Amino acid sequence: MITIAVNGVCGRMGSRIAALVIGDPELKLVGALERIGHPSLGKDVGSIAGYGETGIKITPFLDTYAHVLIDFSSPESAINIAEICAKKNTALVLGTTGLNTQHYEKIHRISQQIPCLVSPNMSVGVHVLSDLVAKAAKLLGNDFDIEILETHHRFKKDAPSGTALRLAEKICEATGRETGKDVIYGRHGISGERPVNQIGIHAIRSGDVIGDHTVVFGSLGERIEITHKAHTRDTFVRGAIRAAKFIAQKPPGMYSMSHVLQIPL
Asked: Does residue 214 sit in the same domain as residue 175?
């Protein structure tokens, strides 16, 4: 039995993670964390997960041992909880978006002590998409322009999405492009003729869209579009749970969903 703690348990993702962990016979929920001052502190986690009484209270601290902690909170909270996980020898599955370079550097240091699996998108399908678009970009060559479109709900705080950025990184790795030089974010004004190696990323925020990502390969006379659409947040939850089961017994180090799915890096 793998024991699980969830940070950010009252959020849209956290509550669903708690619910699916409670319902999984291979897992046991032992910790439910929220920020200091949250109005749900002290309540039974079942009240927000739709499971009735579970005996597990929502707390601001990780006061018990868990094999794995799953985090879908904020960048600052994620880094704080990662440091606590290192002290408690608890593996970390981190799906929080909006992490910057300094955050990643801290996680890399922490991964020398505990296994850390970091992914801004835990969807299994999205990671297959990443592999497909990297292969397509390499096969199609410079005759095809590449654009990435991502659409999310109006409440998303960061743009472009971490998934869109990762898609661009995968394409750059496969084709010898450089993210700092060849990737742009939107266009306006007289932008001039499109450079050969350019990758455009465009962010749309609309209504309650869970998450859509499309990579467009366009040449003179033909176009290929590869799209992934998430219909429900449970898509990401199931991926995070799959990641938790994978990482529970792994040695310290940095892991990704590519390791979980055995996709060549």
From this structure: yes
